[in-house]
Write a structure and sequence with these properties.
Residues 6-182 form the Ketoreductase domain. The protein is α/β, with parallel strands linked by helices. Helices cover 44% and strands 14% of the residues. Bound molecules: NADP nicotinamide-adenine-dinucleotide phosphate.
Length: 251
């Protein structure tokens, strides 16, 4: 099959960084499959905004931590749009700020089951799709990690930081495995970005609190991260694989 269209699946694309990426890629003429878990209101708003601007997008509900739902998600996308060409592994969750000495195994496993295992499973399913194309060299994956993988998340989320460290390593290993097909695998590492994830971590205003301490003296926007994701997916980054872009205001 010769690739004539670009079909991207974004996990956790209903809000935040995933939603900004969906809007941007739709503007760049990708067909956008947006996965979300439960927030129908946000995803519907996003779909109408994309469609109003002439973009092509559809929402696909699936809990990314459930392997059978991931398999169904990929089947639904292929049924609607044909095999995907690009994947943005974006879902990430936080638990409430806590020191390691108080963490339970339930909490740690919850983080790993959302932030690590699904990245592997989604990449596995994406590669099956990529292999349906004669030329896979237009296919690419971007993993969304975090600056926390470098910084450690002390006193807040060492579990989350460690899960993102796993994604950094995963990016390097997967990029080497897929290089022979010409498939590129890269990673973005956002720092403090204004999204709802911080509310889930127990401090909705966390970015505003930390912003003055950052070298650039401000938090980042979801669009600033989306710009880097879009570039890494694009042909302009055709010789970039196994690489990282830090979007952390200089930290
Ligand atoms: P967000 O605003 O909290 O959005 C999370 C998205 O993920 C939502 O669309 C949510 O779906 C979806 N989601 C959550 N659990 C899911 C599941 N089990 N299955 C499917 N979808 C699920 O998050 P964000 O800040 O944009 O974060 C995106 C990525 O950036 C994450 O990997 C995060 O770790 C990383 N990151 C963020 C920051 C930051 O400061 N914001 C910094 C570093 C890294 P619903 O809408 O249906 O709930």
């Amino acid at each position: 099959m010769v690739i004539s269209k670009k079909v991207v699946l974004i996990t956790g694309g209903g809000r935040g960084i995933g939603a900004a990426t969906a809007s941007l890629l739709a503007k760049e003429n990708y067909i956008v499959a947006i996965n979300y878990k439960e927030d129908e209101v946000s995803v519907k708003k996003l779909l109408s905004s994309i469609r109003l601007k002439g973009g092509c997008a559809e929402a696909f509900k699936a809990d990314i931590s459930d392997e059978s739902q991931v398999e169904e998600l990929f089947s639904s996308v292929i049924f609607k749009y044909g095999p995907i060409t690009h994947l943005v592994n974006n879902v990430g969750v936080l638990a409430r700020q806590q020191r390691v000495e108080n963490m339970t195994s339930d909490r740690i496993n919850y983080i790993l089951q959302h932030n690590v295992t699904p990245y592997f499973i989604c990449a596995r399913e994406a590669v099956k799709h990529f292999k349906r194309h004669d030329d896979m060299s237009n296919c690419a994956i971007v993993n969304v990690s975090s600056a926390a993988s470098r910084l450690g998340g002390a006193n807040e989320y060492v579990d989350y930081a460690a899960s993102k460290g796993a994604i950094d390593t995963f990016t390097i290993g997967l990029s080497l495995e897929l290089a022979e097909y010409g498939v590129r695998v890269n990673c973005v590492r956002p720092g403090c970005i204004y999204t709802d994830i911080h509310r889930d971590g127990g401090e909705a205003e966390r970015v505003s609190r930390l912003a003055p301490q950052l070298p650039l003296r401000r938090g980042g926007t979801a669009l600033e991260v989306a710009n880097a994701i879009a570039w890494l997916l694009s042909d302009e980054a055709s010789y970039v694989t196994g690489s990282f872009i830090d979007l952390a205001g200089g930290k």
